[in-house]
Design goal:
By secondary structure, this protein is an all-alpha fold. The chain has helices at 5-9, 15-25, 39-46, 48-51, 85-92, 110-113, 123-141.
């Protein structure tokens, strides 16, 4: 039997119960809402202090660091003209050893952007991955284009 469009969109009898169970399972520490909707603000809040507002390694904290932050706008050029997305993701998530970001035992950003999203399972990991994708997309958009 064919249903009309309005019948197909009507919630079933257990919709309210399922929604209530989902809401009760999602406490603030386990399921933090992502405050970010774009990578630029995320970059500004988490990266610009060291890497600078334009990504050139000239942030206000850069001079005090033991390792000079790299110019993030040159990642594509230093990798044969192609933005190294997988490498960037692995670096930010703490899956790749990088002295300036800390060791694997205590990486600076893996708790925020890594697969566990502050060590929390489930929805928090989804938010962490979403933020990682937003940040990586923004870094890709910052790349200097070779105008030769």
């Amino acid at each position: 039997m064919c249903r009309s469009t309005s019948e197909e969109l009507r919630p079933g009898p257990y919709f309210g119960l399922a929604l209530a169970l989902l809401a009760s399972a999602c406490t603030v520490p386990v399921c933090p809402p992502s405050a970010y909707s774009d990578g630029k603000q995320l970059y500004t809040d988490t990266c610009a202090a060291c890497h600078g507002p334009g990504g050139r390694g000239d942030g206000p904290v850069a001079a005090a660091l033991k390792t000079i932050p790299p110019d993030l706008t040159m990642l594509a050029q230093t990798h044969g003209g192609r933005f190294p997305r997988d490498l960037v993701i692995a670096t930010i998530a703490g899956e790749r050893d990088l002295a300036a970001h800390g060791t694997r035992e205590m990486p600076a950003w893996s708790q925020r952007f890594g697969p566990g999203g502050a060590g929390a399972p489930g929805v928090a990991a989804v938010y962490a991955h979403r933020n990682l994708e937003l940040l990586t997309d923004y870094l890709a958009s910052m790349q200097v284009v070779d105008s030769r």
